[in-house]
Amino acid sequence: MIIFAVGSSSSLATETLHELSKKYKIYATYNTTKPKKILFNKNIKFLKLDLASKKINFLLSSFFKKNKIEKEKIILLNFAVYKKNELLINEKEKSIKKNIDININANISLIKFFLPLMIKNYFGRIVHFSSTKVLEGEVGTILYSASKSFLNGLSASLATEYGKFNITSNILSLGYFKSNLWQAIPNKIKKERLKDIPSRKLGSIKNISNAIEFIINSEYVNKSIIKIDGGI
Q1: pLDDT tens figures, 164-187
Q2: Contact, 151 vs 128, CB < 8 A?
Q3: Which domain range does residue 215 map to?
Q4: Which sign does the torsion angle of CA 144, 149, 152, 153 carry?
């Protein structure tokens, strides 16, 4: 059993994979720079992968053959996302296209590649990542929110179509965690957002890795949206 993680460079992905690597062999992709914190982790191998590239299938096929992992049971984690805070009226066509290419088209291409392997091995766990707060509607996040809403239909249909092959599809809807994204938020807004959390605390990465392990080991958890947001 292996974890294939797409988009390992964010601090949230890096911390989560660090936790999961204590129990699982992980293959992780990155676009430009390998994440330093897990660079020398013996349980993690890396693949440079541009999600906007038309060669995704070729690169993945070559990587799987080289590492002889076609017959492994696969857990697919897709951390990759393109997010730019901008009012829709000011969005450029280039940014709109990138959002669609990475958040929607690449997602579909990845799943199409992995499904035949999962079906053949009669096992698959697909974990999508979304955001609780942004789906409520926040200023400057229309494209990001739209792409995350797309996950709801995608995951539900995947769960319905491929559950008979022991393949599950679930969404983790995340709140606020100690990450670079949180650090980039102005202090005034941080204080306001903390008020939305009953415990007034940020989440720990362990909460995410625990949820992923729960999904891996629970074949009857399918088509779910699991909120990990402290009760926002």
Answers
A1: 999 999 999 998 887 766 766 777
A2: yes
A3: 2-228
A4: negative
